[in-house]
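User:
Can I borrow your eye for a moment on a structure tokenisation matter? Would you put together a sequence-and-structure record for a protein of your own picking? Please set it down just below, with no commentary around it:
AI:
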Amino acid sequence: MTRILRDLGLVRKKISPKHADIDHFFFKSFKQGQSWLHRSLESLLGWGSQKPFMFCFVRHPLSWYESWFKYMSQPDVRWKYWGDATSPWKWHPNAVLNGLGSSDFNQFVRNVVQARPGYVTELFGWYTKPSMDFIGKQEHLVEDLIRVLNRMDVSVDEDGLRRHAPVGVSPEPEQRIAWAGDLRQKVMCLEYAGLVRYGYLAGKDRAHLTAFDSNERGLAGP
């Protein structure tokens, strides 16, 4: 997304750390007074009192686990630590996952489930505030980006965007990713709110969740 917007000449100014959610974007304004934010946005972007059009993207929660595992398994990354979850200055959205990595995909997911159940839904919630004007999906990234630019009255070569090569795709890890059946269903239950909120729960996944819930209730007894 950043690469495309930069290539199109649509990035005027970077005004927050990479990966900052809305709360951390506004953190400095709370520390220095609300007037700092207004002056900064007005001088840097010319927004004045007009609310900017805000958009972000999500992806299927299970796909997110797979993607993060692929990225962190790369030899030059190898489960390095990211920022500090308790520091507003060193904050990184995935800092809470520091130390939870594994060479085995299912073990990595189990580590996350143990430490931070429903993490991806929590993560998305930091960005998809009610003030967000558009929430797109990774699964149809280009078409949703075109919708965003159209809503902002920005003219672009739509066919050119569709031909743009993918950016930031992690290579396949040495170990093939294959969800353990019970773990996949458990994660779907834990991420249920996100699956529903962002429109990912339908068809087969809904049936699987229903069956899993029935089994769980049967094991738990009345």
Confidence is low (pLDDT under 50) at residues 218-222.
